[in-house]
């Protein structure tokens, strides 16, 4: 039994029993229990900067930065507070002025290690007090706190105060219990408190009340204590902050304290008072991947697809956003992810009714496919619209290698497995021509149909326009492909006009990439892991080339992430997001094994395909419960190849003498200095055939098919996911959002779910060191072909 699993109920029982004799009153007849912040000072409720003063355990609940300030004014005394918190720690200052020179300063430092998987957090705070304001009698004391939120509807807190304080400053125990019977919009609370010099038979300090979110943008609270003193307060939510006040009425009807309160937090809260008419600007620039490299010298710096989709979804839901402004800038994206991004824009328009304006300096066929969703499209006056279609080109080196004296010695299984053709053939094979022709047909048809639907044109009209492309801006306007030829300022003025017409005002631009939503839920939530597996599969750890940004999917890295998801009881389901053309057979099998072990735990495993799950990329996907893919993604390529380049004759032609010493008949079987013998080729072919059979059997078992059926649709052939559904290689079409929803349904998860992304990305220093080590050891990020068996499709990789 784990520590947290054992202690969570124990701590909870202590807090409940503490509620019977201790509490956090907000106003009493004694100074030590008087409210000094102007809010409900209940140890079960505080998880922002006020936790520095109320319950330091609350600092571990909310990691984002928060600030709290309040001023209390009454005849005697007067309070001022300023508190800061973030990332599990906090600092606070308070000044009390009772008049006649009686001024007290207090400084607090608090910290918490964070909340456990079972909703329990511990915290501590130290306080430096200056009781006479002269800095001559300073003394230290400490608080210890615990906060338990084991479920979404209950919170309990306990604090022991003024431990170690000097004589005359007694310690106290304060506790609180809060319930949310109808969800996060209403919290009912109460508590008790006990002081060292109080009689045990008279736990006289108690309070009870409620806190309610009165619709977006307004928070109200009220409470009563043992003296029948009433506290009421209200806070107006202003996005990343709030302002408000509170007042008390003491027994007998006279007025007590009055507070002015201000709070701020890095996370955004929905509110009615938000400044409407904002324009969300989204830049579609550089290469779009599932994971971006930390830093590369020459590679294109882009953003992740999930970040872009998140911004679009937030713009649809945000009350202050009135429209979307898309700025394209040399966007590089694969067909599958392009369709996922486009679908997010379509849902934005359908669900929100807000306008979209797209600005294109120039545009490729795929960029325009995405932009065609917009209500208005602007193209730079001298920009060109390259609506020229799709194509696949490949270089064939057979004759050049023959002239050079280089022998391409490859063995492959699968007549469509074209990875080695570029070295062994001088022209494209009929099988390769067939599969790439079908791929281009599917992409082209889907793109033309999408453009026709978005622009209100017929498919025949769009086809004719493609066949007459490219276009300059003026002609593109004339034929109805764009709405205006104009610079970015005119495009922005256009979206301003649309937003003003819809909202009645324009309040400037906003970047939603930096907006994180305020989390008001309690308790641990079930976790759903999203494991990103991008790039060519290699042995060892993941990384990217420092110079080009080429991504490598390390088998060790991905296997470790899958194992962590399997062993973490809090993770209830896994989405395995794949974007890979495959790679080494060994690395692929190591990853597959961890997927198999995860599947055996009965945790739902859903694969989401971004642009590619080809060859080894499909090998690691096939064991999942469900495979969901973007329609234009490339899947399949169930095949194997092995080979090496023999340079012995080339070396001799260049006047380089070759000497090769061996021990063992097959020691040179993978050497680039010697050709393979017929017997060696036979042995290699047997091995490759065996690996292919393993591949076929893995797919058959994972997909519930016969091995013969897999072999018939395999043979190294690639498919678009839209075509792969009918042959059983893909279950459903959709993006990452759909995969997450499917995994949550399969795991029967309801309400709030915490998404955990894995594995951790390498930072800039790690990338540089990794590339340096590879260079120093003579290891290429693409790895040598010799002596390795591959589940790899390099042409599919280039198609993205």
Fold blueprint:
Blueprint: H1 3-18, H2 51-54, E1 66-73, E2 78-86, E3 89-97, E4 103-112, E5 120-130, E6 139-151, E7 154-163, E8 172-179, E9 186-195, E10 205-213, E11 218-225, E12 230-237, E13 241-249, E14 255-265, E15 278-287, H3 305-317, E16 321-332, H4 335-352, E17 356-360, E18 363-364, H5 365-371, E19 376-379, E20 384-386, H6 398-404, E21 407-413, H7 421-424, H8 430-455, H9 459-467, E22 471-472, H10 473-478, E23 484-485, H11 488-503, E24 509-510, E25 527-534, E26 536-538, E27 543-544, E28 551-554, H12 555-567, E29 571-580, E30 582-584, H13 585-600, E31 605-614, H14 616-619, E32 626-629, E33 634-636, E34 640-646, H15 648-653, H16 678-703, H17 707-713, E35 718-720, H18 721-724, E36 732-733, H19 736-746, E37 754-758, H20 764-776, E38 789-792, H21 794-799
Explained architecture:
The longest helix has 26 residues, at 430-455. With 800 residues, the protein is α/β, with parallel strands linked by helices. The chain contains 21 helices and 38 strands. Among the domains are: 3-64 and 76-201, no CATH class; 278-388 and 469-514, 2-enoyl-CoA Hydratase, Chain A, domain 1 (Alpha-Beta Complex), CATH 3.90.226.10; 527-642 and 705-799, Alpha-Beta Complex (2-enoyl-CoA Hydratase, Chain A, domain 1). Mean pLDDT is 86; it is low at 1-34 and 764-786. The strands form 6 sheets. It has a 14-stranded antiparallel β-barrel with strand order 1-2-3-4-5-6-7-8-9-10-11-12-13-14. Strands 25, 29, 31, 32, 33, 35, 36 and 37 form an 8-stranded mixed sheet that branches.
């Amino acid at each position: 039994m784990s520590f947290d699993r054992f202690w969570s109920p124990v701590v909870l029982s202590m807090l409940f029993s503490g509620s019977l004799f201790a509490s956090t009153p907000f106003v009493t007849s004694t100074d030590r229990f008087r409210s000094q912040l102007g809010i409900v000072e209940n140890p079960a409720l505080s998880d922002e900067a006020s936790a520095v003063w109320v319950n330091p355990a609350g600092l571990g609940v909310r990691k984002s930065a928060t600030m709290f300030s309040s001023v209390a004014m009454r005849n005697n005394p007067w309070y001022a507070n300023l508190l800061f918190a973030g990332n599990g720690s906090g600092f606070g200052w308070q000044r009390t002025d009772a008049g006649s020179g009686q001024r007290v300063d207090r400084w607090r430092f608090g910290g918490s290690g964070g909340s456990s998987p079972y909703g329990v957090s511990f915290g501590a705070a130290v306080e430096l007090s200056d009781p006479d304001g002269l800095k001559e009698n300073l003394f230290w004391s400490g608080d210890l706190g615990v906060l338990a939120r084991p479920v979404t509807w209950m919170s309990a807190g306990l604090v022991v105060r003024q431990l170690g304080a000097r004589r005359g400053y007694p310690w106290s125990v304060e506790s609180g219990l809060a319930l949310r019977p109808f969800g996060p919009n209403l919290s009912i609370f109460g508590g008790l408190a006990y002081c060292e010099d109080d009689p045990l038979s008279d736990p006289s300090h108690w309070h009870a009340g409620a806190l309610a979110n009165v619709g977006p943008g307004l928070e109200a609270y009220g409470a009563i204590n043992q003296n029948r003193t009433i506290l009421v307060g209200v806070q107006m939510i202003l996005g990343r902050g709030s302002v408000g006040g509170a007042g008390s009425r003491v027994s007998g009807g006279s007025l007590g304290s009055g507070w002015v309160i201000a709070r701020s937090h890095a996370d955004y809260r929905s509110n009615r008072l938000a400044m409407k008419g904002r324009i969300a600007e989204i830049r579609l620039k550089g290469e779009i991947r599932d994971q971006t490299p930390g830093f590369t010298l020459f590679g294109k710096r882009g953003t992740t697809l999930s970040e872009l989709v998140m911004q679009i979804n937030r713009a649809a839901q945000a009350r202050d956003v009135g429209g979307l402004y898309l700025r394209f800038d040399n966007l590089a994206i694969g067909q599958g992810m392009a369709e996922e991004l486009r679908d997010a824009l379509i849902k934005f328009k359908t669900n929100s009714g807000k306008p979209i304006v797209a600005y294109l300096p120039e545009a490729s066929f795929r960029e325009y496919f995405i932009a065609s969703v917009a209500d208005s499209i602007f193209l730079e006056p001298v920009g060109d619209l390259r609506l020229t279609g799709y194509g696949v080109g490949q270089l064939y080196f057979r004759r050049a290698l023959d002239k050079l004296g280089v022998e391409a010695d490859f063995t492959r299984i699968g007549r469509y497995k074209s990875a080695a053709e570029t070295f062994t053939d001088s022209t494209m094979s009929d099988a390769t021509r067939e599969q790439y022709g079908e791929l281009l047909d599917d992409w082209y048809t889907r793109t033309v149909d999408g453009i026709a639907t978005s622009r209100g044109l017929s498919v025949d009209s769009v086809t004719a326009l493609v066949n007459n492309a490219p276009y300059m801006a003026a002609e593109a306007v004339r034929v109805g492909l764009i709405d205006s030829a104009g610079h970015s300022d005119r495009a922005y003025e256009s979206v301003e006009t649309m937003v003003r017409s819809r909202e009645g005002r324009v309040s400037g631009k906003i970047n939603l990439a930096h907006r994180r939503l305020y989390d008001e839920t309690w308790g641990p939530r079930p976790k759903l892991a999203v494991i990103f597996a991008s790039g060519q599969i290699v042995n060892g750890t993941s990384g990217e080339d420092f110079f080009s940004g080429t991504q490598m999917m390390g088998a060790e890295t991905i296997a470790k992430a899958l194992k962590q998801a399997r062993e973490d009881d809090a993770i209830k389901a896994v989405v395995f997001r794949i974007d890979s053309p495959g790679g080494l057979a060994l690395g692929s099998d190591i990853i597959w094994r961890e997927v198999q072990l995860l599947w055996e735990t009965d945790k739902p495993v859903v694969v989401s395909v971004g642009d590619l799950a080809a060859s080894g990329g499909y090998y690691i996907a096939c064991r999942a419960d469900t495979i969901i893919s973007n329609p234009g993604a490339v899947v399949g390529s169930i095949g194997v190849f092995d080979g090496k380049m023999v340079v012995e004759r080339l070396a001799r032609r260049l006047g380089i003498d070759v000497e090769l010493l061996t021990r063992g008949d097959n020691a040179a079987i993978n050497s680039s200095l010697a050709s393979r013998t017929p017997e060696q080729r036979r042995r290699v072919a047997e091995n490759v055939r065996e690996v292919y059979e393993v591949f076929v059997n893995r797919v058959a078992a994972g997909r519930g098919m016969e091995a013969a059926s897999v072999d018939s649709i395999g043979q190294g052939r690639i498919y678009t996911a839209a075509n792969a559904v009918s042959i059983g290689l893909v279950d459903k079409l959709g993006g990452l959002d759909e995969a997450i929803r499917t995994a949550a349904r399969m795991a029967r998860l309801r309400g709030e779910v915490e998404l955990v992304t894995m594995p951790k990305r390498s930072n800039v220093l790690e990338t540089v060191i990794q590339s340096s080590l590879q260079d120093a050891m003579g290891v290429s990020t693409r790895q040598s072909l010799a002596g390795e068996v591959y589940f790899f499709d390099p042409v599919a990789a280039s198609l993205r």
